[in-house]
Structures are given as C-alpha cells and as structure tokens.
C-alpha cells in the first residue's frame, strides 16, 4: 500500500522529512498544487482537470468525476507496516498485528464532527472510501508514488493501493433511509488521516472540510451551493497558512485533525480547532491551534490564529454547543507520539475567542512548557524525561451546563505497561472517563472490554450528567489485541465509580459458530470509530455512525468494509451496493441488524 508523506506512525525520524516526502515545498500556497492532495485524474463534469499539473488530454479512462453520485457505501481499508506479534485467533501461533488497522472510514477521533444534525431533521455525514474510475468497476489507485508502508493484506488484487475518496451523504432517521453518497474529493493517497469533517451554518449550507496530514499537505473546504443539498458544492478552499510568525520552523502548513463548530455570535462564523505539524522536535511536532474560519467570500480564510499548545506534541478532541466549547488533550512526552499521556482540559464561553480552565481561571496561551500545561491539568502522570508506564488515548468529550457552569466528561482509553503502545493481549487496556462536577475532577474505569489503544467510542447524552457509552467491545476473556470489536453499549454517570453491564448490539465474534481458529478469522467483522452526531440532544433514535471491517479479509477489491448507522440499542447497515431501481425519491433503504459479512464474496 502506498502512503504519501507518511511512514510508520510514531517514528520521530519520519517527521523530519515530511515536506520532502510530500513533494511540496513550504513556500507553496495552494493545496491544489500538492501531488498527494488531489487524485491526478480528477476532473469536473465538463472534463476540465482539477489537478493543475495534469494534462487533461491524457486523462483517458483513468478519470474520476467530482461530485458524482455512486451506488455503494464502502469504507476505507488501511493498515501500517509497523507489525507486532499477537495470537489473534487463539491457535497458539502469533499473527502479525498492525498498530491499528481495519475500516477507518470514520477515523480519527480527533476529526469532529463526521455527522451533524440539520434543522431539516436529516443527518449529514462524511466518510472515506475507495474510488471507482468513471464508467468502470475498477478502483482508482495510488500506484507509482510515495512509500510502501502497509501490509500486503491491504493491497487490492493488482497489488496496488486505492485512492482516498471523500464522500458525503444524508440519512433520514424517520425512515432509516439514506441518500446516494456524493464524491466531494479524491486524494492521491490512501491515508485516512486526510478524512473530512462536516458541519452546517445557520442558513443551512453544508460544509465539508478535508484534512491534510503533515507539515505541508493542505486542506480543502467545500460549501454546498444550495442549503440542505449535497448535489453540488463550491470550492472555497483557503490557502495554506504561514505560521512562521509563531516559530520560524513552521513555514506554511495545512489543517490536520480538524474540529469545526458553527458559532452564532458576532454575525456567525466557524471556530476551528486543529493541529499544525512542525518539522523539528523542539517546536512541538504536533501543535494545537485555533482560528476563526471566515467563509463569507468565495475563498475561505483563517483569521485570528492562536497557538494553543506545543510542548513536545498533543492530540486534542473538542465539542461545542453554541458559544460554549470544550477541549481535552494529552501530551507526547520525550518527543514521541507513542509516549502520549496525561490529560488536560479547557473551555470557552465566547465561541473560542478566550479560554479558561475547569476552575474558570483565564488560560495563558500558548502553552509551550511543562509548567504552562499545569494550568489546565486534569491528571499528570509523568513529566518529560520520565519513563512512561501509562498512556492516554483521547476519544470523545461531552458536557452538561453552559458558561462557567459546564460539567464536562472526557472519554479515553488508558493502557498500563512500559510497552503500552504495542498491540498486546497482556497489556491492561481499559475504557475510562474523567468527570468535573463543578469543583473537582474524578476518574474511573467504565469497562475493561477493550483490547487496543485505538478502540474508539462515543459519549451520548440528553443534556444531563448521565451518558450512554457506545464503543467497540471485546470481552476481557477474548482479548485479541486488535482495534475494534462488536458494537457495545454501557452506561456511566457523574463521578460514580461502579462499572455497569455491557450490552452487545452486533453479532459477537465469539459466538458458538466460531468452531475453529480458521473460522474465527473468516467470520470476524470488527467495528470501530463509533462517532456521535453533532447537535443531537437525546439518547434514543439515531445516535452515531461507525465503520466495520475484517483486517484479515482485505486481499480483494471485492472485500466489503461496511458503514453502520448506530441507533439506540440497534444498528443499521448502509447498502454495500444498490441499483437505481432501489432509490425512491432520492433515498434507498438500509438493513436492520444485519448478520454482517465483511467480505460478501467469501464462501462460509
């Protein structure tokens, strides 16, 4: 598999060469000029090329048309060639296990929102998946570029990797029907770190912001041409922003891991919280920034850009309700992404213009030292230079209250062990929460039924301090070291420490029909990246979206990577393929509580 500008996640040596591996100099302004940001044979409906360095006459039958509607839902399969050993199927023989792998179409937890509720009652969502060439059954490929860093099981039948398609669709919760997905953008990479987020302004226009991973790779922003419609979009992509005023080692950079929120005050604007990569360890590697995203004109602009944190590196999650915004993040000590630990929190009452800690004291920005992080600390296990024995992977954040009376809850996966970044059946993985009751922070385990750092879930609330927690569950006795599991649901509230029963909503991969280790690998259909619907205010009905896949069944182009809508106590699968005859008034039916097969063509 060919991954552009990315090698082994967590290896610090790679980051030093990001700008070179992307094929783009820091001086370039437009994301359109980056060869990995745009599929080379991407075209408008009238035949014009979208990639400025491609000759349109050479497109031939390799073209892909922007904004075309497709008759399938299929997620993005992805893995890293950073392999570890673990006995996945219980046959006594170690298997090769990537750090994370599977259907990453709703990845990452630092992208938010991937689904949003519109005032028209529909839910709009975005996901990534493979791209079919126009008029064919052949997938577009990223062959011939970049580095091969992914296990062969993730290559298609031609030994090539698929291009990354960014899709948007809308779901009707009242009928459980879904529209045809629309291809908004196609990238000449298969790296789902470039997945998109979606949100809606107060006039009902739909925005799709596509991330760009790394120091130089840019981001794209599309706005629907009609409120509530996804039939066509206008390109209002901002130029890469010049961050040299913050640190000369930044240069121009794109938007990574975006959090995008509509703020109604001051005439209405988008608040953006995101990551900017820096090419050297001394400037923090992954820095948290925030900015006002001005979308008034034909070209969006980043304004009032503020550096939030840049001590060794951070990953952040965020949520918002109106002018109230909450953010949590960790720190990457010792200049290593694998040494992510500690937990920090801050919030805003004014749409992100100013920030406070949980005690409502003003936060001084930027936070570039260990001491400066103390002002927003929830829990600090370690300081830089120390050996890391407990890691923190942030997953979701939600809150009750408003203004200075917010009571946030942070969802995270913790892992105990000196080598806790390595997939393992022996490491202590657990799903946990941190809760602020208005005076004090408390932490507690929610469940031990997770077995990988990248098993990712969601906090679902009705506005109170009680939460339904949806996550990829694996019973502790069946720990197999893989990210994902069956979709599970449990409950947590306030600062209570007791663990509640876990209810499994999808067929367990540990059912009685898994009679042999070989069948275990065939029948496994792992769910992961359960993502909430932004703007939802209840625990019943449609609550989120998730991806599903089998990391041992990606050897064929026909392999299925289902997209799942998660409802209260049930799931619905989006159709892997459908005909135009099945589409009525623009919508097609979904399947209720399916017996999922992650490869529909295999012989069971």
What does this structure look like?
It holds the Pfam family BNR_4. Residues 1-26 form the signal peptide. The protein has a domain at 1-36 and 64-190 and 512-604. 3% of the residues lie in helices and 37% in strands. It has 4 helices and 41 strands. The strands form 12 sheets. Strands 8, 9, 11, 12, 13 and 40 form a 6-stranded antiparallel β-sheet that branches. Strands 36-37-38-39-41 form a 5-stranded antiparallel β-sheet, with no helix packed on it. Strands 14-15-16-17 form a 4-stranded antiparallel β-sheet, with no helix packed on it.
Per-chain topology:
Elements: E1 2-3, H1 12-15, H2 18-21, E2 42-43, E3 64-65, E4 77-79, E5 83-86, E6 95-98, E7 101-103, E8 115-117, E9 123-129, E10 147-148, E11 164-172, E12 177-179, E13 182-187, E14 196-200, E15 206-210, E16 220-224, E17 233-235, E18 241-242, E19 252-253, E20 256-263, E21 269-277, E22 286-294, E23 301-309, E24 316-321, E25 324-332, E26 340-348, H3 370-373, E27 377-379, E28 390-400, E29 407-416, E30 428-436, E31 441-447, E32 458-461, E33 466-473, E34 486-493, E35 503-504, H4 517-523, E36 526-532, E37 542-549, E38 563-567, E39 570-573, E40 587-589, E41 591-592
Parallel strand pairs: 2-3
Antiparallel strand pairs: 1-10, 4-7, 5-6, 8-9, 9-11, 11-12, 11-13, 12-40, 14-15, 15-16, 16-17, 18-19, 20-21, 21-22, 22-23, 24-25, 25-26, 26-27, 28-29, 29-30, 30-31, 32-33, 33-34, 34-35, 36-37, 37-38, 38-39, 39-41
Pfam families: BNR_4
Keywords: Signal
Characteristics:
604 residues; signal; 3% helix; globular; mainly beta; 5-stranded antiparallel beta sheet; 41 strands; 6-stranded antiparallel beta sheet; 37% strand
């Amino acid at each position: 598999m060919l991954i552009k500008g990315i090698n082994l996640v967590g290896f610090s040596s790679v980051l030093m060469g990001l700008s070179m591996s992307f094929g783009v100099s820091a001086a370039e302004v437009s994301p359109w000029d980056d060869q990995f940001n745009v599929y080379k044979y991407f075209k408008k409906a009238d035949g014009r090329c979208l990639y400025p360095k491609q000759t349109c006459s050479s497109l031939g039958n390799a073209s892909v048309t922007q904004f075309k509607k497709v008759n399938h839902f299929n997620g993005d399969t992805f893995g890293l060639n950073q392999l570890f050993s673990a006995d996945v199927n219980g046959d006594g023989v170690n298997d090769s296990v990537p750090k994370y792998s599977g259907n990453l179409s709703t990845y990452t937890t630092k992208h938010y929102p991937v689904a949003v509720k519109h005032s028209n009652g529909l839910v709009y969502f975005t996901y990534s998946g493979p791209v079919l060439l126009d008029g064919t059954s052949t997938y577009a490929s990223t062959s011939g570029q970049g580095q091969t860093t992914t296990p062969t099981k993730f290559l298609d039948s031609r030994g090539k990797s698929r291009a990354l398609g960014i899709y948007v669709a809308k779901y009707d919760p009242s009928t459980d029907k879904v529209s045809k997905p629309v291809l908004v953008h196609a990238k000449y990479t298969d790296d789902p770190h470039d997945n998109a987020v979606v949100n809606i302004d107060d006039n009902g226009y739909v925005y799709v912001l596509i991330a760009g991973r790394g120091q130089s790779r840019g981001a794209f922003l599309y706005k629907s041409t009609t409120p509530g419609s996804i039939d066509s979009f206008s390109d209002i992509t901002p130029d890469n922003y010049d961050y040299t005023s913050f640190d000369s080692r930044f240069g121009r950079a794109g938007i990574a891991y975006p959090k995008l929120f509509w703020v109604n005050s001051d005439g209405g604007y988008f608040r953006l919280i995101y990551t900017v990569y820096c090419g050297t360890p001394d400037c923090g590697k992954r820095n948290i920034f925030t900015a006002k995203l001005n979308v008034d004109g034909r070209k969006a602009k980043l304004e009032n850009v503020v550096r939030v944190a840049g001590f060794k590196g951070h990953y952040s999650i965020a949520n918002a309700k109106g002018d109230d915004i909450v953010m949590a993040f960790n720190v990457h000590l010792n200049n290593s992404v694998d040494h992510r630990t500690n937990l920090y929190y801050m919030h805003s009452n004014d749409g992100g213009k100013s920030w406070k800690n949980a005690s409502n004291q003003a936060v001084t920005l930027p936070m570039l030292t260990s001491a400066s992080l103390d002002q927003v600390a929830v829990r600090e296990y370690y300081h830089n230079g120390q050996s890391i024995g407990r890691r923190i992977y942030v997953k979701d954040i939600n809150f009750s209250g408003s203004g200075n009376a917010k009571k946030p809850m942070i969802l995270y996966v913790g892992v105990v062990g000196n080598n806790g970044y390595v997939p393992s059946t022996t490491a202590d993985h657990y799903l946990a929460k941190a809760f602020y009751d208005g005076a004090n922070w408390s932490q507690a385990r929610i469940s031990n039924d997770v077995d990988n750092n990248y098993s990712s879930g969601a906090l679902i609330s009705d506005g109170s301090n009680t939460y339904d927690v949806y996550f990829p569950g694996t019973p502790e006795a069946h720990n197999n070291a893989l990210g994902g599991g069956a979709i599970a649901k449990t409950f947590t509230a306030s600062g209570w420490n007791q663990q509640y029963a876990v209810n499994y909503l999808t067929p367990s991969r540990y059912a009685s029909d898994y009679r042999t280790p070989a069948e275990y690998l065939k029948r496994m259909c792992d769910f992961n990246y359960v993502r909430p619907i932004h703007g939802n205010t209840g625990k019943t009905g449609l609550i989120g979206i998730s991806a599903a896949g089998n990391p041992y069944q990606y050897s064929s182009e026909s392999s299925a990577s289902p997209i799942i809508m998660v409802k209260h106590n049930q799931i619905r699968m989006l159709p892997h393929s459908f005909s135009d005859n099945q589409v009525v008034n623009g919508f097609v039916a979904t399947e209720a509580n399916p017996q999922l097969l992650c490869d529909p063509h295999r012989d069971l």
